[in-house]
Amino acid sequence: MADLTNNFIGIKSPNPFWLASAPPTDKAYNVYRAFDAGWGGVVWKTLGEDPHVVNVSSRYSAHKLQSGSILGINNIELVSDRPLQINLDEIKQTKKDWPDRAVIVSLMVPCEEQNWQQMLQRVAETNCDGIELNFGCPHGMPERGMGAAVGQVPEYVEMVTAWCKKHTRLPVIVKLTPNITNILLSATAALKGGADAVSLINTINSITQIDLDTMAGAPSVGGKYTSGGYCGSAVKPIALNMVGQIARNSETSSLPMSGIGGVTTWKDAAEFIALGAGNVQVCTAAMLYGFKIINELCDGLSNWMDSKGYRNTEAFRGLAVPNLTDWQYLDLNYKIVASIDQNTCIECGRCYSACEDTAHQAIAMKMGDKGKRTLEVIESECVGCNLCQITCPVPNCITMEKRETGKSYMNWTQHPNNPFKG
Amino acid sequence: MASDRKVDIQTHRLSDDQYQQNFSDVKPALTAYQAHIESNRCLYCEDAPCISACPTRIDIPSFIQKIANNNTAGAAKTILDANILGGSCARVCPTEILCEGVCVRNKDPEYAPINIGRLQRYALDNFNPSEHPFQRLPNSGKKVAIVGAGPAGMACAHHLARQGHHVTLFDKNSKAGGLNEYGIAHYKMQDDFAQKELEFILEIGGIELKTQAELGHSVHLDTLRQEFDAVFLSLGLTKCKRLGLEQDNLSGLENSLDFITDIRQAEDLSNLPVGNKVVVIGAGNTAIDIACQTKRLGAEQVTLVYRRGVDNMSATHKEMEFARQNGVAIITWARPVSIFTNNKHQLIAIQFERTQLDDAGKLQSKQEHFELAADSVFKAIGQEFDGQCFSGSEAPELLHHRIKVDSDYKTSLSNVWAGGDCIYHDGEDLTVQSVEHGKQAAYSIHQYLEQQSHG
């Protein structure tokens, strides 16, 4: 059986699943329930200086599919709105009661070295396992010069990281904001500042919806609204991309990463790890389904690892990184075509709509006896775009099959049409 | 069989609650949540098979998609544009052999079609427009007579009225609606829906309703053809087929449709007398309706007898299943040969002979007999067109004992069209089919009237 124990920059936990710094880790009561359920660690909801912040009523909103499934949620909650000492006392007690679990403390302090120094001293007394610098929070706090306001300026990231490394012996994880144009700039800054690791991504600036009766967005606070931080399944592709870019960049590839962003199933977690993350942090999925999902996360990951013969997460960590490349190096002579399994096809014609209206007219819909419809791929027209496979409602009915072109590997840098070809 | 046997036909067989329960909506409306789940199951197929399977060609994926994105009014209009009687069709259509029968989600391995009928009902039940959703064009000055205010007649009337023509809608009964009013199982259509739907149809304007006006009696085809620019006949099938066992003064051998009408029109079902032992002869949906309803009125034993096998029954498998769930016993391969009466000329039993197919595939007697004691026997062996209505007028040509029409629903008479069950046609005798006849005939009549204006 696969060994799920995790060692992330020296912080040990029984599995690679931590709860991210967010409402689920707001206080000891929640954290104890999470540990009871089996979570490997928590990043405590971000602590700030006293006097504590004040939150509004009406805090979350969702972006749903028409079917009602949730794509993502956003929130406008600030950092912990409890007095600092209560949090510190609870953290200390939690670590004492759950010594085998990772307890990380997330911090957001005004951009002055002495403020950070004082905060770090108090946090160290909790015996927590590490700190995470919240440079990502996109709502509310940036208006006060904190959170994403720091994370969006690489120089600040480096400076504050360096202060933290100077004033604490605890491992320092820098949490990165995705609300930037190039994640490598902030990752490099964290590295230069001496960060032990980065965690990414924080939430994304968003407005999930407008109530067309009140003309207010959500969450609506008395008819007014503000940009919130978007998270959940929908942000996973964005997070994976940023993790992948850091992993394949020579300067940052050695920087340990804690993967965050829409992790809902064990497969999501495995994907982050395959792209180089040392562990993952989860929030939205727990908020939507409760802490019990940790069973499915651990069990699914473990069974998949067993099926592949991976003894621990290090055995497959980063394996997807070498295959991530620039477009210009993709093989232009690689060819796939769609193939429709007539035995499982239910004749809905969705593939036909997609291909005929919006792609390459490579599917024929033939009418037979008694209303029987046959969907057939016209291979000569098929460019292998995958759209029919994506639209097909029946699992594995449409597969993309490789066709030998007889031509050897050729990428854009070698292609005669490339005006910049060497 | 003892000739002094008493017949057990009684009212008040059940408690008030039981009547209430037995005759409540058998397929109640979906809740908003159910409609949300169901509408989101639709795959929004390309050139969807459900559309072709609907005789009125409702754009089903489109209206379901509209329900799914909270545009119920749009859904309702999509339905009504193709089928102005979409509300009654949603309740009575045998969807299992129409739209739902061909739904791609009805295929292996899912076998769970979208519940199209109930989504249609949901859209229309929740449609409360401030004004009629269709606008009538300016008055054309043309007049059309429609005889028979059943589904075909009502659909035809609405489509012609939309085009600005003036329609006079005649019906022999005191209430319009045809089989929707008089011939549908009570639990399939409730709350006076047939009349409500009629009112909705009349809202378009330009339709004058004349009830208790029967063709061949107070109204004559020749006169209508002279007084109106065009005539549409939607007369239905009003004559019950004969079993060959009918006798004068005999009580206990009934026409199913008459009793179905009694049930529909009853103000208090508990006052409706019903036999304790009931035999139904036939195997169409009317047979199922009468069998299930007599059972639900409290008959202890209801037996449906059919001269052929299950595969030959015209009732759908879903209707048959419904009959079994209602506790109706089904006997196949037997036909009635004689009846027994008591000394009061009341039917007390019926004798059947077993049947089989001979080598040529023809039905023959097996020379075996059995008897079923019965307080009532209901005939549900089909209805016939009654040509008596043309007496004194030039009659249109018939085909297979029904009115012959061409592909435009035009009869052999110059300005007369026909549709609904009274015509000979390829499809089944269904409400939705009649609606389509009425609609198509209206298109043809409109074209004819236009040509007359411009000719």
Number of strands of chain B: 19
Regions of chain A with pLDDT < 50 over 5+ consecutive residues? none
- Low-pLDDT runs of 5+ residues of chain B are none
- In the CATH hierarchy, what is the superfamily of the largest domain in chain B? FAD/NAD(P)-binding domain
Mean pLDDT of chain B: 95
Task: Give the full name of the CATH homologous superfamily of the largest domain in chain A.
Answer: Aldolase class I
**Strand order in space, largest sheet of chain A:** 3-4-7-8-9-10-15-16
Secondary structural class of chain B: alpha/beta
What percentage of amino acids of chain A are in beta strands?
A: 15-25%
First and last CA, distance of chain A: 52 Å
Task: Detail the topology: elements first, then pairings.
The complex is a heterodimer of chains A (422) and B (455).
Chain A (H helix, E strand, L loop, with lengths): L5 E3 L2 E3 L3 E3 L8 H10 L3 E7 L12 E5 L5 E6 L8 H14 L4 E6 L5 H12 L5 E5 L13 H4 L2 H14 L4 E4 L7 H10 L4 E4 L3 E3 L3 E2 L4 E2 L10 E4 L4 H13 L8 E4 L5 H9 L4 E4 L1 H6 L3 H16 L27 E5 L9 H9 L4 E5 L5 E5 L9 H5 L6 E5 L20
Parallel strand pairs in A: 3-4, 3-16, 4-7, 7-8, 8-9, 9-10, 10-15, 15-16
Antiparallel strand pairs in A: 1-2, 5-6, 6-14, 11-14, 12-13, 17-20, 18-19
Helix pairs in contact in A: 3-5, 5-6, 8-10
Chain B lengths: L8 E2 L5 H7 L9 H8 L9 H5 L6 H9 L3 H11 L3 H7 L6 H4 L13 H10 L17 E5 L3 H12 L3 E5 L8 H4 L10 H10 L4 E4 L10 H7 L2 E4 L5 E2 L12 E3 H10 L8 E2 L1 E5 L3 H12 L4 E5 L11 H9 L3 E3 L2 E8 L5 E11 L5 E11 L2 E4 L3 E2 L13 E2 L2 E2 L12 E3 L12 H24 L1
Parallel strand pairs in B: 2-3, 2-5, 3-4, 5-19, 7-15, 9-10, 9-15, 10-11
Antiparallel strand pairs in B: 1-8, 6-16, 12-13, 13-14, 17-18
Helix pairs in contact in B: 2-4, 4-5, 4-8, 6-8, 9-16, 13-14, 14-15
Keywords (chain A): Iron, Iron-sulfur, Metal-binding, Oxidoreductase
GO molecular function (chain A): dihydropyrimidine dehydrogenase (NAD+) activity; iron-sulfur cluster binding; metal ion binding
InterPro entries (chain A): 4Fe4S_Fe-S-bd, 4Fe4S_Fe_S_CS, Aldolase_TIM, Dihydroorotate_DH_cat
